[in-house]
Amino acid sequence: MIGAGGIAQNRHIPTFLKLSDQVTIEAICDLNESTAKSVAEKFSIPKVFTKYQDMFGEVDAITICTPNKFHAEMTIAALEAGLHVLCEKPMAMTPEECQLMIDAANKSGKVLAIAYHYRFMKESQAAKRVVMENEIGQPFVARAKALRRRKVPGWGVFTNKELQGGGSLIDYGCHFLDLSIWLLGNPEPVEVMGTTYSELSKTPNQVNLWGSFDYETFEVDDHVTAYVKFDNGASLLFETSWSANIKNDEESVSISGQTGGVDLFPFQLNQAKHGMLLNSEADWLPGEEDPSLPQAQNFINSCLGIEELIVKPEQALKVSKIIDAIYKSSELGQSIRLK
Fold first, then answer.
1. pLDDT (tens digit, 9 = 90+) per residue, 158-204?
2. What residues of the chain score a pLDDT lower than 50?
3. For labeling, which of 99, 111, 146, 147 is most exposed (least CB within 10 Å)?
4. Could you state, in order of their start, the residue ranges of all structural domains in the chain?
């Protein structure tokens, strides 16, 4: 484990410990040695490091749980050392860094997985199944909302642009971009129009449910809207926020196809069949309640060569291309054409 913060302690370490018949956690690395030692003691991890390169000889694979700025550097170094990598989302700070990571994975022949865990949710897996079985025909329009009401993360480095690259879009909305592209069949984005906002979080006297933060040094986006066109004619309407002035948080993805549609959170299948409009809710969906477990299982099985990755790095690159284009579009005030 590289990085001993919240995402490591609350998600990845407990999850891998549940899969002890296939994997053991041999080492943890963090620049803050006292934090690393504390986490190692808490979870009975044998070895502690402050330099990630020093741990490479001890393990077969690593999980990267650091700020986004270091994803590419650490991933490439690990792949070149012959290790498999599970890297937290987003893949990297820029599409160019993502491509270098893919090149390193291809050259090494090792597994590179990106932790877009929303794909492993029961609703997401059910939606993918009905799309693949042609229950809605060719999917062509996606609508995605990832909205939180006054929940700017007031801890860690989430509002640090240098370390993270952005705010609500790159931290939270990226999951819903990934999920939408995946359900559309992984088309290539070709044009993006986006607008980013930070006005709400730059005002004094904040009401924020997730801890205090300094509004004077807030330097990332807290609300983003975008429209994305794909090479197969599909399109995506997208909105994300840490701090939307809405009644309740909203998480939704909706896919419309030629003969029907599917909604997520909650799952519902909407069809035009037999001269009727039919809406079907699921009384039960197969799968785990916690998507972290199937994500970790998929990574391990992919390393062992008995399963294919569900989140391939080439697909995660598309998310980063869209994120980068949204930021550029907002800055320039015009749509961005992608090669």
1. 999 999 999 999 999 999 999 999 999 999 999 999 999 998 899 88
2. none
3. 99
4. 6-118, 128-289+315-337
Backbone angles phi, psi at 68, to 5 degrees: -60, -30
Distance CA 52, CA 81 (A): 12
> CA 48, CA 46: separation in Å to the nearest integer?
7
How would you classify residue 263: left for phi > 0, otherwise alpha for psi between -120 and 50, otherwise beta?
beta
Domain 128-289+315-337 CATH assignment equals 2.30.30.90: no
Residue 134: what pLDDT?
96
- What global pTM score does this model have? 0.96
Provide the CATH topology of domain 6-118: Rossmann fold (3.40.50)
What are the tokens at 295? 């994500």
The DSSP output letter for 50 is S
Can you read off the two tokens belonging to residue 233? 């004619």
From the CA atom positions of the chain, what is the Rg in Å? 20
Say what the pLDDT of residue 338 is: 96
Q: Which two tokens stand for residue 246?
A: 């809405």
Alpha-carbon span 45 to 47, nearest angstrom = 6
In sequence order, the β-bridge partners of residue 47 are: 27
